[in-house]
Amino acid sequence: MTPLYLGLLLLAGAAALAIWLAVGVRWGGDRLVRLNLRAGFDTVDAGTQRDAPDFGWARRFTTGNGQERLENLYSKAGRPAEWPVPRLLACKVYALGAALLVGLLLLAVTSGNGMILLITVVMVPVGYFLPELLLYSRGIERQKAIGLELADTLDQMMIAVEAGLGFESAMARAGHNGKGPLAEELVRTLQEMRVGIPRRDAYLALEQRTDVPDLRQFTRAVIQADAYGISISTVLRTQANEMRVKRRQRAEEAAQKIPTKILIPLMLFILPVLFLTVLGPTVLNVLKM
What we know:
InterPro entries: T2SS_GspF_dom. This protein is mainly α. It is 82% helix and 0% strand. The protein has helices at residues 3-37, 46-51, 64-76, 85-109, 114-128, 130-162, 167-177, 181-194, 199-210, 213-228, 232-256, 258-288. Residues 23-29 and 39-52 have low confidence and may be disordered.
């Protein structure tokens, strides 16, 4: 088989895999959701249950530490329901296979070029860890959003507590009336306490899920106030003022970093064009003379 035919065959396999990833996985997830919604209302035959993708085989291609790391990243990213951990593990394998197929196709077309071989060696592990990188990026954005929303949420809870509500009622009000990841985490923490999880354990679980230093400081202050009988309104007022000061300091720090960040684009793109515009005619006149 000539390298051209081999390359075309690999290209067709990569295209088929991409189509399956874009269409088949989504439809399989929709079938699984429909089966879960219909559970208990009608009888689902065994054949329909077998059609739902399981992705249990993907765990054999990932170590225990890798699965634990993915679970941690998945929790920090907000546990998106449309992308459960088994599907992410399967996507890691699919991305690895797609990167390998593309690399082999490039090697077949270029007759084993050394640079293409190096690109393939780099591309294969990057494809395998791509879902984890996406989860990490989403988790970082979620942590930033929680840090920005924390001061305003504490102000709302402080106003509700001073108006006569209990701490958990104020938390429920801030969670149900708010929008964003912090409101979702507050609602989940209240749900955990309502099903019997101790308050301290629910707050510690909130710390682990979010991994935001400011929120960790707030939960530790609430735990200490609950243990030593400190007024919760005083704790909320102190924490809200401190979070507001930290948010302002972070904004000032980001503003002070702007001149340093703009220096490289200025040196590479703006100053050369300015020098050409100003000194270009003079240089041309000197050359003519």
